[in-house]
Write a structure and sequence with these properties.
This protein is α+β, with helices and mostly antiparallel strands. It has 14 helices and 20 strands.
Amino acid sequence: MPSSCRIAIVGGGLAGLAVAHALRTFGIKAEVFEAAPALGEIGAAVNVSPQAVKALQAIDLGDKIAAVATASPGIYTRNMQTGEFLEFNDRRKNAARYGAPYYTFHRADLLDALASGLDDSAIHLGHRLIGLEERADGIILAFANGARVEAEIVIGADGVRSVVRQALYGNDNPSYTGQMVWRALLKGADVPQDVLEPTGHIQWVGPGCHLLAYYIRGEALVNIVTQEDTDKWVEEGWSTRGDPDEMRASFPNPEPRLEKLLSLVTECSKWGLFTRPLTQNWGRGRIELIGDAAHAMLPNAGQGACQAFEDAYILARWLEACRDPAEAFANFRRIRIPRVHGVQRLSFSNARFKHMRDSAAQRESIAAGARSVHGNSDWVWGYDPVTGWDKEPFVPTAYAA
């Protein structure tokens, strides 16, 4: 890809900044256009599994992300109502087993790390895309502030409600999944240590719902994120201010440690989870979608941001390797779509198992080794985007098309 080629990245979140950094690593300049007046991420925390850490390390961000990360010891899972131990998903051996650690971050810290090293003049804030025009030799981007930008390549990294996607495929809005999320952030010092024993990363599962609580920024903060099956989501947006009492009411008859944790929540937000059917529609011509704009997924495999980071690295490699952007994008989709679709299917499968109404059957499946609340993530975490960027990915039969 000629270094003089003008590349416009729409979206300055995790996916957009990661691909800008990846392109920069391979000598390719790009400009980022972000709708918000300042860079920022909604939500408190993000998990990054080993294969995605490898992708970030390969674009020269290894030291910067390690400096703001908390290494996850593993998820200790209990029954939500009895407190009974169900499973321990040990992550402490990840560095040796997978070649990279499993990290948790405050989203703001990770975003700052991704933005570091990028030229400030290449990040354009207050640019909300309202339309684009495809031409034979490029694309014209129109923004709400009146700016019009000509680009030879456009990368749509503008999230689950992508304007780039809508311009390409019309009314392709994501649909509500029947699941919603509560989020809250507590000071670590306010949470009794026994609540998060023994690992500091605890999951409670119950009929139709689950809740995760874990430390970020060392032990300075405790992130709480929940998920529940509900048909009551009526908000037009996907993130609104929540009522802590309503949040607590969503988890009836909690065991004492969970009850104590929930009692500490004074502020929270709630999100509807939106997704779209698995699709091959990731872009066309000189336009490519990445991250949630291409493949919004449920969070039950912890792979939303991770798959965006894989996208960023592999897309940059293909743009470096091919002079024709259409060829680069076609190769990118050929490699990425089978793997991402597999991860999306894993996420749906995990959600169903975590929320089983029959707790006894769930417990028996775990004890027999037939199923884990985390599914089988070896094929996800064991993938190496650095050596596998141009190779057909392995996807287990259970999650393949």
